[in-house]
Amino acid sequence: MENKFLGLRTCLYRVPDLAAATKWYTEILGIKPYFEEVFYVGFNVGGYELGLEPEEGDKRAGLGGVTCYWGVDHVAEHFAALLAAGAKPFEVPNDVGSGIIVATVLDPWGNAFGLIHNPHFNLPS
Fold first, then answer.
1. Largest Cα–Cα distance in the chain?
2. If exposure means fewest CB atoms within 10 Å of the residue's CB, which of 3, 50, 79, 119 is most exposed?
3. How many Cα atoms occupy the beta-carbon half-sphere of 89 within 13 Å?
4. Helix/strand/coil for 4
5. What domains, with CATH codes, occur in the chain?
6. Is 110 within 8 Å of 119 (Cβ atoms)?
7. Neighbours of 76 (CB within 10 A)
8. Could you read off the pLDDT of 99-110 as tens digits, one per residue?
């Protein structure tokens, strides 16, 4: 067996109201889910998956030490649009060096949603 990682595939957020979260993410991403069941909703975001799963037991929404950063061309514009859609600021747009700009908001359920513009990586079209 070859032990080879194939790259990031899915970022999973837990939410208390799957229908409300599906609606919110459909609006902010500008796409409909490709998979939608009562136990899981999946969005294909530029070849990567944003998954939504209902809270259950100890699996709760909110900050858990991991932040997924989604590539964008204009971090400040996306940051403002997310705030207008009901997200809360967590980390304002910031140039962290070498032209890399990051920002993070909290979705309405407290999950960290990161934005990144990294000129050293090509964004999928």
1. 48
2. 3
3. 10
4. coil
5. 10-117 (3.10.180.10)
6. no
7. 14
8. 999 999 999 999
